[in-house]
């Protein structure tokens, strides 16, 4: 979050981004966090947290949707090297969520494999419909973050790490307007 504060203020340090760091991590890595973020080009985790080489495992999917390969990728750091933090990072004005929302609302399938994203976002759509609000797409995007973080937190392999305090799985939301990341759920106490 300190890196995000630097991003918001423009007082960037650009840590761990030089040939010395490249050499240091060339043989081995020990990232302090794993980020599951959206594919959106406006939401690059390494930049908005002001991090560098070897600092983060980063997985990106449309609408922060998950499946077995993505879940395995998220599990990799905590289960192999003790990475203590997983952040599920949704964002404002998510195109994948907006497309899925319209598809579900209108009962029209999206082409190709995009329909798999729609199917994965169905629970968030249902939750947004229950919650209501003035902007259902934003409500759905926030719901998706919370649902995905909760699913990962209760995952059979990650849950024991969470229970013993070795892992935090945090849901967060990025504002395109301000650059600020807001923690929605799962912040360690």
Q: What can you tell me about this protein's structure?
A:
- A hairpin with a 6-residue loop joins strand 4 (168-174) and strand 5.
- Helix 5 (95-106) packs across helix 6 (114-131) and helix 6 crosses helix 7.
- The protein has helices at residues 2-9, 19-25, 45-48, 68-81, 95-106, 114-131, 136-153, 159-163, and strands at 33-38, 56-61, 85-91, 168-174, 181-185.
- By secondary structure, the chain is α/β, with parallel strands linked by helices.
- The chain has 8 helices and 5 strands.
- The chain is globular.
- It has a 5-stranded mixed β-sheet with strand order 2-1-3-4-5.
- The protein has one domain (2-184): Carbonic anhydrase (Beta-carbonic Anhydrase, Chain A, 3-Layer(aba) Sandwich), CATH 3.40.1050.10.
Oligomer: single chain
Following the backbone from N to C, one meets helices and strands in this order, namely HHEHEHEHHHHEE
Structural class computed from helices and strand pairing: alpha/beta
The CATH superfamily is Carbonic anhydrase
What's this, in brief?
With about 190 residues, this protein is of the alpha/beta class. The protein has a single domain, classed as Carbonic anhydrase (Beta-carbonic Anhydrase, Chain A, 3-Layer(aba) Sandwich), CATH 3.40.1050. Helix content is about 45%, strand content about 15%.
Describe the protein's topology:
Layout: H1 2-9, H2 19-25, E1 33-38, H3 45-48, E2 56-61, H4 68-81, E3 85-91, H5 95-106, H6 114-131, H7 136-153, H8 159-163, E4 168-174, E5 181-185
Parallel strand pairs: 1-2, 1-3, 3-4
Antiparallel strand pairs: 4-5
Helix pairs in contact: 5-6, 6-7
């Amino acid at each position: 979050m300190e890196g995000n504060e630097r991003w918001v203020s423009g007082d960037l340090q650009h840590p761990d981004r030089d040939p010395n760091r490249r050499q240091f991590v060339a043989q081995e890595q020990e990232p302090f966090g794993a980020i599951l973020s959206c594919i959106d080009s406006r939401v690059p985790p390494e930049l908005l947290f002001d991090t560098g080489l070897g600092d983060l495992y980063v997985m990106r999917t449309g609408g922060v949707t998950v499946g077995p390969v993505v879940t395995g990728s998220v599990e990799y750091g905590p289960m192999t090297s003790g990475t203590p933090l997983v952040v599920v990072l949704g964002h404002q004005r998510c195109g994948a969520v907006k497309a899925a929302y319209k598809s579900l609302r209108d009962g029209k399938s999206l082409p190709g494999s995009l329909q798999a994203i729609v199917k994965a976002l169905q629970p968030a759509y249902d939750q947004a419909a229950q919650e209501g609000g003035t902007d259902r797409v934003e409500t759905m995007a926030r719901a998706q973050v919370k649902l995905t973080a909760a699913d990962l937190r209760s995952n059979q392999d990650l849950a024991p790490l969470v229970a013993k305090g070795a892992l935090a799985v945090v849901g967060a939301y990025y504002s395109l307007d301000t650059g600020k990341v807001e923690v929605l759920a799962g912040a360690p106490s």
